[in-house]
């Protein structure tokens, strides 16, 4: 940040500098062949250069740190730190010195001063120092306003201000996708892209669910000894690279049976992202509440509570269906089972299920068999509400793998 001083007519001088970590110095090696005119001159110069790594002078590596020469970039979620110094350049004692530091954003004005009380006096060649910190939470133009007021020996009250303008950039691009499962589970895919010019160490990416859900992270692979991240041990995100994180949200037991409540829930939770850059500068972002499109179940919802993955050809197997009344009226339901080309239902079709009150559920065990091998779709269930004479059709409810138990493997 540029160093600004007060005008000469003022007795005090104001200096403001941004506090940042140093950066690694990288040298640019210049080499030539021995038969060229410079000979070994460039090699000797690189060996004598204190910024090079001994034994690897021709590599773009350095073992020195350099202080920032300019203000640099500030990204959303990072902590802005600044050093403020007021120095008495005069030969007289100055009294009642008050230093204020405010940060002006597009939406608010924040007071960053560590103390709002005035210093009683400041002798010549003495100074007042202050360090301010602020976690940046807005994108766009920020203005640091530093104001100094004081009183001279003659009792004259003087006042001056300095303005320091900087831009806050966006470090990450976050995109989300929702997938609504038939079992009331919600899968969230979060795509996070590093849009800065330096690599990031992703310290934490977690999902804080809303009060109705429990969350399971699906970003690690469990082995016999420990759980390893799917992204490997080195969790670095290079510039412009994108990484996908997956989460599964399940309704809490007290809300799982309330079909209407779960159906209307659109707020899922918020992502909490923590990263580190360069020499350990820490940044943190928390998204706003993520919202999904509420799934439309209609008046009656049919889901599967139990179904096998693999069944035998032409052998009956059992499934359990759950029927939920999602409407605001009582229904009198009749279940019909219609055979398809590959799926054949066992039992009586057209049986009465009785009355089902609003938000109530009913579990029904059913038996069926398949006459065709391969991946077969469960279809052909029909529910009829005798009150309104309305029929609800359910096809492609689930899939099962049908195998022939009598086929022996080829030798």
UniProtKB/TrEMBL annotation:
Domain of life of the organism encoding this protein: Eukaryota
Domain annotation Trafficking protein particle complex subunit 13 middle: ranges: 172-295
Coiled-coil annotated residue ranges, if any: none
Domain Trafficking protein particle complex subunit 13 C-terminal: 308-402
Domain (Trafficking protein particle complex subunit 13 N-terminal): residue spans on this chain: 10-168
InterPro entries per record: TRAPPC13, TRAPPC13_C, TRAPPC13_M, TRAPPC13_N
Entry GO CC: TRAPPIII protein complex
Residues of the signal peptide: none
Assembly with partners or alone: Part of the multisubunit TRAPP (transport protein particle) complex.
Assigned protein family: Belongs to the TRAPPC13 family.
Protein name: Trafficking protein particle complex subunit 13
Organism: Sinocyclocheilus anshuiensis
Organism ancestry: Eukaryota, Metazoa, Chordata, Craniata, Vertebrata
Gene transcribed to yield this protein: LOC107705057
């Amino acid at each position: 940040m540029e160093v600004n001083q007060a005008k000469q007519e003022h007795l005090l001088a104001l200096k403001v500098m941004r506090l940042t970590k140093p950066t690694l110095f990288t040298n640019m090696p210049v080499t030539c062949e021995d038969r060229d005119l410079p000979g070994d001159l460039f090699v000797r110069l690189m060996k004598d250069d204190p910024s090079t790594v001994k034994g690897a002078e021709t590599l773009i590596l350095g073992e020195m740190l350099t202080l920032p020469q300019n203000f640099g970039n500030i990204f959303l979620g990072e902590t802005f730190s600044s050093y403020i110094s007021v120095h008495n350049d005069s030969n007289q004692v100055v009294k009642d010195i008050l230093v204020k530091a405010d940060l002006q954003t597009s939406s608010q004005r924040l007071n960053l001063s560590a103390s709002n009380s005035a210093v009683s006096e400041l002798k010549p060649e003495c100074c007042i120092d202050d360090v301010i910190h602020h976690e940046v939470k807005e994108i766009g133009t920020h203005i640091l306003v530093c104001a100094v007021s004081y009183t001279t020996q003659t009792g004259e009250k003087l006042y001056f201000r300095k303005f320091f303008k900087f831009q806050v950039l966006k470090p990450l691009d976050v995109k989300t996708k929702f997938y609504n499962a038939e079992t009331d589970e919600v899968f969230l895919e979060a795509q996070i892209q590093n849009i800065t010019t330096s690599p990031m160490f992703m310290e934490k990416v977690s999902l804080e669910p809303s009060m109705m859900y429990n969350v399971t992270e699906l970003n690690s692979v469990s082995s016999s000894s420990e759980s390893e991240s799917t992204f490997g041990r080195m969790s670095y995100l290079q510039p412009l690279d994108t990484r996908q994180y997956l989460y599964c949200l399940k309704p809490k037991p007290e809300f799982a049976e309330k079909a209407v409540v779960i159906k209307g829930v659109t707020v899922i939770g918020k992502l909490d992202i923590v990263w580190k850059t360069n020499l350990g500068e820490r940044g943190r972002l928390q998204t706003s509440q993520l919202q999904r499109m509420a799934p439309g179940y209609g008046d009656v919802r049919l889901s599967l509570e139990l179904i096998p993955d693999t069944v035998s050809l032409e052998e009956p197997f059992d499934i359990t269906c759950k029927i939920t009344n999602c409407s605001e009226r009582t229904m009198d339901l009749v279940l019909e089972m219609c055979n398809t080309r590959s799926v054949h239902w066992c039992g009586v079709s057209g049986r009465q299920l009785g009355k089902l009150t609003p938000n109530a559920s009913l579990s029904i065990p059913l038996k069926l068999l398949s006459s065709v091998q391969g991946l077969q779709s469960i279809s052909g269930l029909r529910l009829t509400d005798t009150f309104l004479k309305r029929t609800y059709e359910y096809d492609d409810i689930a899939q099962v793998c049908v195998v022939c138990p009598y086929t022996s493997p080829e030798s």
